[in-house]
Design goal:
- The protein contains two helices and eight strands.
- It is of the alpha+beta class.
- It has a single domain, classed as TolA/TonB C-terminal domain (2-Layer Sandwich), CATH 3.30.2420.
- Strands 2-8-3-4 form a four-stranded antiparallel beta sheet, with helices on one face.
- The longest helix is centred in the N-terminal third of the chain and has 12 residues.
- About 10% of the residues have low confidence.
């Protein structure tokens, strides 16, 4: 009887072993936005999500430069959209509306997804 009670006690306090690892995405570790030079893998624009104005390749002196935060799921946070340099106010207005449909790969720092501050030129 004592042996049976000891076996039950040992079984009840022994933690279960590690289960199967299902996560293939890096975990989210930070809520504070980071700059591209602070992360290991910066956020990257996914080109097939474009409707209307879109981010363009970096140029030496972009006429229309915008800034926003890409969250840990790769979405542009609309409340962070800011026009830094404007030559075409209509383009920037249209870009602000289109940004909600833009998708990015999330930035990664270490093994964690992190929000990233992105600055990019826009064009039609």
């Amino acid at each position: 009887m004592l042996g049976t009670m000891m076996a039950l006690l040992v079984m009840s306090v022994t933690p279960p072993g590690p289960g199967p690892v299902l996560a293939t995405q890096p975990p989210v570790c930070a809520e504070q936005q980071q700059f591209d030079f602070e992360v290991d893998m910066p956020a990257r624009f996914i080109g097939d999500t474009v409707s209307g104005p879109h981010p363009t390749a970096a140029t030496a002196n972009p006429a229309n430069l915008v800034q926003f935060v890409v969250d840990t799921s790769g979405h542009v946070m609309p409340n962070t959209f800011l026009a830094l340099r404007i030559s075409d106010s209509t383009l920037v207005k249209d870009a602000r509306a289109a940004a909600e449909g833009w998708r990015y790969t999330p930035a990664v720092s270490g093994e964690c997804k992190v929000p990233q501050l992105v600055q990019t030129p826009v064009a039609r």
